[in-house]
């Protein structure tokens, strides 16, 4: 690998660190051969549920060169969101990633800064930033870039930092030095399979998205299925169970991104507070938050489902 490529790679990784990313890995842009049959089988089994967008752009999901003309490198980035404080343990629960401001905007700004840096310092480089809003298989690219392995719970896991992080990419038409894939360190552990409240992890490394609490509380727009009554373990938006029980998450350290800090009310609210939440309070507590995806009515639907006693 020539010295210029090596120099550019180090510059990009240093800048990513300066911008607050947890880690940065790079892989060669190309067709994801191993993932293609897996994705096809998963979709054919209907494990996407009502998430029909997962069926769109099949080819683009597997080949970044169809998303960015002349793409040569996929720069994968991790951004920590592990909080220093968690909610009142007796309350209804939100997934930790939704405590602060909507990560899409926070990360997009950082990615734009990184791309601008590349264009300023290196020259004419074309690229696009992706934050889980386009057909890119984030976890597959992050694993290919040596940032971790996809664990039995379907999340990207890292020996150093666990799994409480966001994944994002810059796909660029620039040759860089590529990282090597890391090995799987799940071993014989089945903590996530054993703990999943709705048995959504149907086999090691296979998650039925249509059975996941995150799917029910965020993606599903219809009524929540009665057979799931009593199985949500007080999760009203998302679910962290398979991450909370993962042994690698004992290495999670609190993030240092002020925009991910929660509204104090969010941490102190009791079940009664949530049950009585008004639309005005919802807007105040979740200003610029990912929770706005469910809207006030959606969150209320979830809370009512949790608070109503099983017949």
From TrEMBL:
Cob(II)alamin binds at residues 61, 132, 153, 156, 167, 214, 239-240. InterPro entries: 4Fe4S_Fe-S-bd (IPR017896), 4Fe4S_Fe_S_CS (IPR017900), QueG (IPR004453), QueG_DUF1730 (IPR013542). Its cofactor is [4Fe-4S] cluster; cob(II)alamin. It is found in: Cytoplasm. GO terms for cellular component: cytoplasm. Binds 2 [4Fe-4S] clusters per monomer. Pathway: tRNA modification; tRNA-queuosine biosynthesis. [4Fe-4S] cluster 2 binds at residues 196, 212, 239, 242. SUPFAM superfamilies: alpha-helical ferredoxin (SSF46548). TRNA binds at residue 221. The active site is at residue 132. One of its GO terms (biological process) is tRNA queuosine(34) biosynthetic process. GO terms for molecular function: 4 iron, 4 sulfur cluster binding; cobalamin binding; epoxyqueuosine reductase activity; metal ion binding. [4Fe-4S] cluster 1 binds at residues 186, 189, 192, 246. Residues 177-206 form the 4Fe-4S ferredoxin-type domain. Catalyzes the conversion of epoxyqueuosine (oQ) to queuosine (Q), which is a hypermodified base found in the wobble positions of tRNA(Asp), tRNA(Asn), tRNA(His) and tRNA(Tyr). PANTHER family: EPOXYQUEUOSINE REDUCTASE. HAMAP family: QueG. This is Epoxyqueuosine reductase. The lineage of its organism: Bacteria, Pseudomonadati, Bacteroidota, Flavobacteriia, Flavobacteriales.
């Amino acid at each position: 690998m020539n010295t210029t490529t090596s120099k550019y790679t180090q510059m990009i990784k240093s800048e990513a660190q300066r911008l607050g990313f947890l880690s940065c890995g790079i892989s060669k842009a190309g067709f994801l051969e191993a993932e293609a049959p897996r994705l096809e089988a998963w979709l054919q089994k209907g494990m996407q549920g009502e998430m029909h967008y997962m069926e769109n752009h099949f080819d683009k999901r597997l080949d970044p060169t169809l998303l960015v003309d002349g793409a040569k490198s996929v720069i994968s980035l991790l951004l920590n969101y592990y909080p220093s404080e968690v909610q009142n343990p007796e309350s209804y629960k939100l997934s930790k990633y939704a405590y602060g401001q909507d990560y899409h905007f926070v990360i997009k700004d950082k990615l734009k800064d990184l791309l601008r840096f590349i264009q300023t310092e290196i020259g004419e480089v074309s690229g696009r930033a992706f934050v889980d809003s386009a057909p890119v298989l984030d976890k597959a690219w992050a694993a290919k870039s040596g940032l971790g392995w996809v664990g039995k719970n379907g999340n990207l896991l890292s020996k150093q930092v666990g799994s409480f992080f966001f994944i994002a990419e810059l796909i660029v038409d620039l040759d860089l030095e590529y990282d090597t894939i890391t090995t799987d360190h799940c071993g014989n552990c089945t903590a996530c399979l054993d703990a999943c409240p709705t048995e959504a992890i149907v086999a090691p490394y296979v998650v039925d998205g249509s059975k996941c609490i995150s799917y029910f509380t965020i993606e599903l727009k219809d009524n929540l299925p009665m057979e799931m009554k009593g199985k949500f373990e007080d999760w009203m938006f998302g679910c962290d169970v398979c991450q909370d029980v993962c042994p690698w998450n004992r290495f999670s350290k609190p993030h240092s991104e002020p925009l991910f800090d929660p509204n104090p009310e969010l941490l102190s609210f009791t079940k009664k507070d949530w049950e009585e939440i008004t639309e005005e309070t919802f807007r105040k507590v979740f200003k610029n938050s990912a929770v706005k995806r469910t809207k006030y009515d959606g969150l209320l639907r979830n809370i009512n489902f949790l608070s109503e006693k099983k017949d």
